[in-house]
From TrEMBL:
This is Delta(14)-sterol reductase. It is a multi-pass membrane protein. It is an enzyme of class 1 (oxidoreductase). PANTHER family: DELTA(14)-STEROL REDUCTASE, DELTA(14)-STEROL REDUCTASE TM7SF2. Its EC number is 1.3.1.70. It is found in: Membrane. It comes from the Eukaryota. GO terms for cellular component: membrane. GO terms for biological process: sterol biosynthetic process. Pfam families: ERG4_ERG24. Pathway: Steroid biosynthesis.
Length: 384
């Protein structure tokens, strides 16, 4: 179905909407399933051991503390699901069979959650930086961007938890779609295998380094509103897995050379992404840390100019864009649909870089100007 037919013919649009359509009872059942998933994840997070990491120092000199046991939670969750599948308690294609409906149910849940959190933020009597109201008075803006920085529920930091749930949800959807292909077609196609391999490595790596999340822009600077609630739990899992859905109904002839090139793009992107984020995180913990074998160089002792951070001011974005691109390459170039994720990420990170630049310029003032002179490239060295 072309974009033109969807725009010009409302009937065609309704056809596109069909997989998302869900009736009342089904909606309640599916929302309960999603709530069950969130409940189990919260329980695992509470009982499993994990390092407690102090978050960034907030404006009122307080910090939020994060228990980083996402990897343990993921492993236990996957083991539990494996056992449940083995004994036929659940089907491995439970998500893949009703992906659109599941997406609608998660969306409705996120909508309700965002309204509840906006109201809770409006009426809060808390005055710490993380819990006080940051309301602007514009209801739409407050709902979209959130009112509180780090709202919690029963001691659980909702923002940190929500990203965990979304990243794990992405992996569960991928696995379920792979299981559907395996059951229906008797094997995994090479393209599906490559996509699954890259995503699995990326997501496990994310949880291996979960503590690094505690210093990212979303965690330190964004309030928790619909944008993040929806972005983390609906957008990430349901759209980042588009390639897998697409590969279910399209076969791609991938040559060994193309597959090798694809692996290379992934490895280069991953190395840049991981090194940049690790270097910054280690530098924040110890400004004298060694980077590429030499003591870290920093402007004013605060802005790292060694390693990746001396190549471009957001080398981590460059790595992430390459990785995203490598997720889509197994689908070939016959359709733009599987390229949704890298295209979206490219636009998002370009916009995010501008916002982060403005924030850093206000925070670091002259030091930031000096950093921009020392490292003129924003993301892509010699290009941008
Ligand atoms: P960063 O992790 O790059 O954090 C930016 C912050 O780092 C700045 O605000 C500043 O904060 C600090 N900083 C910037 N430059 C320097 C420097 N030279 N030396 C020391 N500190 C510096 O940004 P994000 O949180 O946006 O991204 C984190 C990762 O998440 C990235 O790899 C990104 O690609 C990925 N990401 C992925 C998304 C996806 O959908 N797949 C979406 C968004 C991000 P401070 O005040 O602490 O100094």
């Amino acid at each position: 179905m072309s974009l033109f037919s969807v725009v010009s013919d409302p009937g065609a649009f309704m056809e596109l909407y069909q997989p998302l359509k869900v009736d009342g009872v089904e909606l309640v059942v599916l929302m309960s399933v999603v709530l069950g998933y969130l409940g189990i994840l919260a329980l695992l997070g509470a009982v499993l051991p994990g390092q407690t990491i102090a978050g960034t120092l907030l404006a009122d000199k307080t910090r939020v503390y994060y228990k980083c046991n996402g990897l343990a939670s993921l492993v236990v969750m996957l083991a539990g699901l494996g056992i449940a599948i083995k004994f036929d308690y659940i089907s491995p294609t439970i998500i893949a069979d009703r992906g659109g409906k599941m997406c609608t149910a998660t969306f409705v849940l996120c909508l309700m959650m965002s309204v509840w959190l906006t109201l809770r933020g409006y009426f809060t009597k808390e005055n710490s930086e993380s819990l006080k109201s940051h309301a602007t008075g514009n209801i739409i803006e407050d709902w979209w961007l959130g009112v509180q920085l780090n709202p919690n529920f029963l001691g659980l930091d909702l923002k940190f938890f929500w990203i965990r749930a979304g990243m794990m949800g992405w992996l569960l959807i991928d696995f379920s779609v792979a299981a559907k292909q395996y059951i229906e077609q008797g094997s995994l196609s090479p393209s599906m295998a490559l996509f699954q391999l890259f995503c699995t490595l990326y997501i496990f790596d994310y949880f291996w380094h979960e503590e690094y999340m505690t210093s990212t822009w979303d965690i330190i600077a964004e309030n928790f509103g619909f944008m993040l609630i929806f972005g983390d739990l609906v957008f990430i899992p349901f759209t980042f897995s588009i390639q897998a859905w697409w590969l279910l109904s399209h076969s791609v002839d991938i040559t060994p050379t193309a597959a090798a090139m694809n692996v290379l793009v992934f490895l280069i992107g991953f190395a840049v992404f991981r090194s940049a984020n690790t270097q910054k995180h280690k530098f924040k913990q110890d400004p004298k840390v060694k980077i590429w074998g030499k003591p870290a160089k920093a402007i004013g002792g605060r802005l790292l100019v060694s390693g990746c951070w001396g190549i471009s001011r957001h080398c981590n974005y460059l790595g992430d864009i390459l990785v995203a691109f490598s997720f889509s390459l197994p689908c070939g170039i016959s359709s733009p649909v599987p390229y949704f994720y890298p295209t979206y990420l490219f636009i998002l990170l370009l916009w995010r870089e501008r916002r982060d630049e403005a924030r850093c310029s206000t925070k670091y003032k002259e030091l930031w100007k000096e950093y921009c002179k020392a490292v003129p490239w924003r993301i892509f060295p010699y290009i941008y």
